[in-house]
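This entry is listed below:
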Amino acid sequence: MYRNPGLELVLEAFDQYWRKPPAVKRIVLKVIPEETTRLAALRRGGVDIAYSIGGEPVEGLRRTPGLTLKPPVVQGVFCLCFPDQWDPKSSWHDERVRRAASLAIVREGTNEALTLGYSLITGNPIVPDPYEFFWHPPAPVYDPDQAKRLLAEAGYPRGFDAGDYYCDSSYANIGEAVLDNLQTAGIRAKLRPIERAAFIRGYADKAFKGLIQGGSGAFGNAATRLEPFVVKGGTYA
């Protein structure tokens, strides 16, 4: 294994592997941040496999001769975090406001628009379905009218400005969809996509206010998934 200039990681096969010699002798991993650039490289044959392509570009891939679309369902779960909910002066301190945000999100629609319906909607904010000790909560509900009523009961009949919405820039498309949903209910926020390393650092350092599009892709079980978020000393607790 060695690195090349230009954000490339080269993996060379080890012919003395004890089971049998690898069929693939060399793999080059390339970092291509922009989705459209990844897609262009795939279409012109510059790369053999590309991932993290969603929405309209995926529809185009379906109609491209010589290319095959494979939806990998991974163990990552996205959720919306309210870091200010413990502050009595914050709008998010009121449970009705947090419930309103959940009721305003069109999960099925976002799933269809971004991943052609291949993603799984768990209802569990951190733990995916196959994990040991998984708790299957009631299915999330979409009810924008009830969301507006809850906001009015909480003292925000015209909605409110929720500040910033922080997310890993690789998944800013999810943030855009969620922000559109929240704005429909009256919750107005500004998208703040941040490069992954800086996002994780800021999240862990408690530097973000407002809303955080969080989640986890860690292996293990329900306990190991929850530990960074709820146990004292955990990365995001």
Q: What stands out?
A: The chain has two domains: 2-62, 77-230. The chain is about 30% helix and 15% strand. The first strand starts at residue 2 and ends at 4. Residues 25 and 123 are 42 Å apart (CA to CA).
